[in-house]
Amino acid sequence: MGDERFRRLLEPVYAQALAFARHVSKSASDGDDLFHEALLRALIKLDHLRDEAAFKPWLFRIVISVHRKRCRRAFWKRFVQTSTPAPDSDPATSGDYRVADWSPDAAEAARRARDALASLAPAYREAIVLFEIEGWQVDELATLYGVSASAVKSRLARGRMQLRALYEERHQAVPTLSGETS
Question: Can you give the residue ranges of every domain in the chain?
Fold first, then answer.
């Protein structure tokens, strides 16, 4: 019964939740791992979900919780490294699920964006991905995080400022919406 309920609730949000997990992670494979760990946790805790209409924000909170736990763990692993980290895969050869035709320029732009996002603090990265990439509204994010709409707007503004600073520092030019650089 619980498996059927979980499958029914997950089906409409599966692709969006997977995309979110991949975007907040440093690579698609890390995102897949994050997503699967979050799904396991959600399945275990499904009996605690009273309102099925709240499944989407509930699931995203679990993904965020697992992501932050992994970030804390990664912080401490820097002090005691047990193995050599695997290099990130090249988006041009990884078959990114969002873009059908990769050009060398698109692959490089995606790599730079992914690197910049990966450099942000988890709270800023999560908010920017949900708002800018996944299309969530400010009030939805406020509900998800349990904060005011102004707190979400501040988080987004700070994250954008940090992204801009990263682009200026690393690439000496900041892309604009029209495709030009400033």
Answer: 1-88, 120-182
pLDDT in tens, the chain (182 residues): 568 999 999 999 999 999 999 998 888 899 999 999 999 999 999 988 889 999 999 999 999 989 988 876 665 454 443 444 444 444 444 444 444 454 556 677 777 777 788 888 888 988 988 888 777 889 989 998 899 999 999 999 999 999 888 877 876 655 555 445 55
CB count in 10 Å sphere of residue 79 = 6
Q: Does domain 1-88 have CATH number 1.10.3470?
A: no
Going by C-beta distance under 8 Å and a sequence separation of 6 or more, which residues neighbour residue 112?
Answer: 167, 170, 171
CATH number of 120-182: 1.10.10.10
